[in-house]
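Batch manifest, entry 17 of 40.
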Amino acid sequence: MDSFNGKRKTENGKRFLILALDTSTEEGSLALVEDDRLLGESPLHSPGTYLQHLLPGIVALLTAAGRPLQDLGGIAVSQGPGNFTGLRLGLATAKGLAWALGCPLVPVPTLEALAAQFPRQPHPTAVLMDAKRQEVYLGLFHCPGELPRPLAEPRRLALAALPPLLKPPLLLTGGGLNAYEDFLRQYLDPGITWAPPEMRHPRAATIARLGRVRLDAGLTASPPNLTPTYLRPAL
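Output type: structure tokens
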């Protein structure tokens, strides 16, 4: 990962403001976080309208928090996998802002962000995202604390190949549960725990939290070199 030499902006040497964008699914969102405090979070519905609503949504979020754009000390963005159009728009917006403001740009893997919404889990977490054409993106994580640890490389595979790979005890989450619920209910072990429907989409607030950790670890990217994670060629 590249290191982008943007300067971190602070207020009184203490406070640090991060803008987070998630446009990886049909249920996107924006979040503004100062240190560990969530200042605001707003939804973005439908990739088809992201182009019209991303920048106005960012302005509205900052205005509601009473903070100017120049206060941003970092921008975190969901890198994928996910919706091709949404990812391209989200990354283009994040890269443009980071470049214009000279602040660090932090990509966050989408599968990891979904797992991070279930911290302190005693059992593994499997994340499924709809890859279309009867395929899914699969990420396997262990999350005994706040941060997920990958148990395997993320991959794309046929829906029919899933059942032998998913065994209890296991927490299952992600939008793939909604897209392929009938198949999964029929063929998966009933002992697997399903995440509630409202928790199966990534949240920008989680992207911000993971972005801060990655920023502190120096895992930033230069805007020209950051590309989406597709796990397959764009259609």
